[in-house]
Write a structure and sequence with these properties.
This protein folds into 5 domains: 61 residues, Helix hairpin bin (Helix Hairpins, Orthogonal Bundle), CATH 1.10.287; 230 residues, 2-Layer Sandwich (D-amino Acid Aminotransferase, Chain A, domain 1); 98 residues, Beta Barrel (OB fold (Dihydrolipoamide Acetyltransferase, E2P)); 147 residues, DNA polymerase, domain 1 (Orthogonal Bundle); 85 residues, Rossmann fold (3-Layer(aba) Sandwich). Helix 1 runs antiparallel to helix 2 and helix 16 packs across helix 17. The chain is of the alpha+beta class and 677 residues long. It is globular and about 100 Å long. It has 25 helices and 26 strands. It binds 2-(butylsulfanyl)adenosine. 2-(butylsulfanyl)adenosine binds next to strand 3, strand 8 and strand 13. 2-(butylsulfanyl)adenosine (IVH) binds next to strand 3, strand 8 and strand 13.
């Protein structure tokens, strides 16, 4: 086997394994390995590719993140235009469509495929010889933007397809942001004073059309493929349903809820069922799409005015209602931000009673011109917190009041400020009880330390009883203390202690996120954990160190530095350390290997000239056997190897009482160690 054959084989095996797990995770939603195991695989692959750049291929899983920035979007001419869909808003309109179809097809029977209509952004993905070569937006239907680099960051889009795939083909689908991702993105934007995305579609489009693919990579985008644009060089199935199964077999993510039906009644039922359960699905659907199954029939039906006659979007009714804005309340968040929210006269919207809505910040309230006492239009979008769309100005009486943020914190009475360039008002008291409690709640929450059985209520009870003042105090709670709380049974107390104990082993990225450093969300925490081995290393990092990490800007860097500068925070970290919470990454496979080598833990310093080995060769042999080669003699030095014409190091070794080796002894040690390998 040649020099390169071995790494090449390993790289290929790693890619295969990673792609398999990517598919389990991103397409099938059923991972088989932990995130940490996955990270290790990626790390190994990255390492090998760094050593052997000639082995890097465009479809390597490593190429999904941190691809070079797109200079500007180029234009992609669509070979076949990307069409839009006609809408039906009622059963009558749906029936009219069905009649038109039946008129063309005469007496021939036809099946229909029903799919959720996803509120995202249409993309066309072209594969040539097994590789994704172009990803484009719909644009005007004929010409779209080339956003290949950005689409490559979406894990559920295959970068390559199996050999069985046609040599050239184009698939089409909808890129979308799941509801939770949309909500989180808008929350972050509200804090930063950026304009909010109106809906998941805009958010997905905004995320995909980024000049820096690093930004796209951090947005939790996903895709559902909904059709084949064209294919060359291979026969493909001749019904839409089978094409979808075929695309699935090629590794594409298709919506698991598509259905093949045989009558208009079934389409109506599908629409009704989905209209009722749309709240429960993790992405936004604004209707269903009904498509004639047979591709031959589709061609016969053709297109009128950019809209195919063979498909229709049957929309869901909007979930809006009107009610009165009784007052505006304020919550104080864990970073001291004053978060306003609308107190509404309860109203039923789409089967759910709404009595409050998110308001984000003062600017948002004024931009919408909302006044206390207004009649307002409220809207629910899935599980996202309801929001106020607009005031109904015509119903004003003149008694409505304009809202202003209070000058004092509603919880502790301290001064409230609005930092330059930020949208949020903040309480200036770092010890504000509301902040402290919110920080503890954040610490135990899912995604952070995930301490089962310790929810908001228990945090509050512990805090109010004076048993915890910060999150680290949780690790010092005793069973007696827990039992002193009202309604705490012996069994639950034991469970709580068990969960707290279990959380000590959370990965560093989680601990970092749990600390609640302003602007450091879970994704940044993950990024920081990739660059620093421990929280201590991060705490010591200078602004310059932090800024050298791609996608960390001055705002985050300064926030991290300010956090670790605060005595209170340093104390919390010390308490966590003493309690046994893991504050550093486990050693990597590489390091573990080193520690099992025969010279592990030994440090050699060479002085003078050796006969049989050059200095670099000697050092390389020491390192290969797990030892370290130092340049200065210190108390940590294990051996000083003394060659011909030694320098002052030999004398120093004697002074410190460090063992010296002559060349023969040194070689013997190396040979013995080599024998132990
Ligand atoms: S089929 C000619 N299927 O809706 C038919 N479109 O309003 C092309 N969309 O541009 C589209 N989910 O971006 C189809 N299951 C689905 C869809 C879907 C969402 C979008 C797509 C299209 C728009 C038309």
């Amino acid at each position: 086997m040649g020099d390169i054959a071995k790494p090449k084989q390993t790289v290929e095996e790693l890619r295969k394994t990673i792609n398999y797990h990517n598919r389990r995770y991103y397409v099938l939603d059923s991972p088989e390995i932990s995130d940490a195991e996955y990270d290790d695989l990626m790390k190994e692959l990255r390492g090998l590719e760094a050593e052997h750049p000639e082995l890097v291929t465009p479809d390597s899983p490593t190429q999904r993140i941190g691809a070079p920035p797109v200079e500007a979007f180029g234009v992609v001419e669509h070979r076949d235009p990307l069409l839009s869909l006609a809408n039906a808003f009622s059963y009558e309109e749906l029936t009219a469509w069905h009649k038109r179809v039946s008129n063309v097809l005469g007496r021939r029977e036809f099946d229909i495929v029903c799919e959720p209509k996803i509120d995202g952004l249409a993309v066309a993905l072209t594969y040539v010889d097994g590789l994704l070569v172009t990803g484009a937006t719909r644009g005007d239907g004929y010409r779209g933007e080339n956003i290949t680099q950005n689409l490559k960051t979406i894990r559920s889009i295959p970068l390559s397809v199996p050999k069985e795939a046609p040599p050239r083909f184009e698939v089409r689908g909808e890129v979308y942001l799941p509801k939770a991702g949309f909500k989180r993105l808008n929350e972050e934007r509200a804090k930063e004073g950026l304009p909010l995305f109106a809906n998941p579609r805009n958010a997905a489009a905004g995320s995909v059309r980024q000049l820096d693919s690093g930004i796209t990579a951090r947005r939790p985008l996903d895709i559902f493929v909904y059709g084949l644009g064209w294919a060359e060089g291979k026969t493909v199935p001749d019904t839409h349903w089978e094409i979808m199964q075929y695309l699935k077999s090629l590794g594409f993510k298709i919506n698991p809820n598509i259905a093949l039906v045989h009558s208009l009644d079934e389409v109506e039922k599908y629409h009704r069922d989905w209209g009722q359960s749309r709240e429960k699905i993790p992405y936004e659907a604004d209707g269903i799409v009904a498509k004639i199954d047979s591709i031959a029939f589709q061609q016969e039906l053709g297109t009128v005015a950019h809209e195919p006659r063979w498909a229709i979007a049957y929309k869901f009714p909007a979930v809006q209602g009107t009610t009165k804005l009784i007052d505006i309340g304020i919550n104080v968040g864990r970073t001291g931000s004053l978060n306003p929210y609308a107190i509404l006269e309860p109203v039923r919207v789409g089967g759910v009673t709404i009595s409050s809505a998110a308001l984000h910040n003062e600017e948002d309230i004024h931009r919408k011109d909302l006044r206390i006492g207004d009649w307002v239009v409220v809207q629910r979008a899935g599980e996202v917190i309801p929001e106020i769309v607009e005031p109904i100005v015509s119903r004003r009486t003149g008694k409505e009041k304009i809202f202003h943020m209070p000058a004092r914190c509603p919880v502790c009475g301290s001064e409230v400020i609005k930092p330059e360039g930020e949208a949020m008002h903040r309480c200036t008291n770092a010890a504000c009880p509301s902040q402290a409690l919110e920080r503890i709640k954040h610490f135990v929450s899912r995604g952070a330390m995930d301490i089962d059985g310790v929810g908001d209520k228990l945090c509050q009870a512990l805090f109010e009883a004076g048993l915890i003042k910060d999150a680290a105090d949780l690790y010092y709670l005793t069973k007696e203390q827990l039992l002193s709380l009202e309604r705490m049974a012996d069994k639950s107390a034991s469970n709580v202690l068990k969960s707290i104990e279990k959380s000590k082993n959370r990965p560093v990225a989680r601990v970092l996120f749990a600390l609640g450093i302003t602007h450091v969300g879970d994704q940044y925490a993950e990024l920081l954990a990739q660059h620093f081995d421990s929280i201590d290393a991060l705490a010591k990092a200078s602004e310059e160190d932090l800024l050298s990490i791609p996608s960390i800007g001055p705002r985050i860097a300064q926030s991290i530095i300010a956090f670790f500068r605060q005595e209170r925070n340093r104390q919390i970290i010390e308490k966590l350390r003493k309690a046994g919470v893991k504050l550093e990454k486990p050693r990597t496979v590489g390091e573990e290997l080193v520690s099992s080598l025969p010279l592990a833990g030994l440090e050699f310093v060479l002085t003078g000239k050796l006969e049989s080995l050059s200095r670099p060769e000697a050092e390389a042999r020491i390192k290969a056997l797990g030892g370290k080669a130092g340049s200065d003699v210190t108390r940590k030095t294990s051996y000083v190897v003394v060659g011909a014409d030694p320098g002052s190091k030999s004398a120093k070794a004697e002074k410190l009482g460090i063992k010296t080796l002559n060349e023969a002894e040194f070689l013997e040690m190396l040979n013995k160690a080599t024998g132990k390998l």
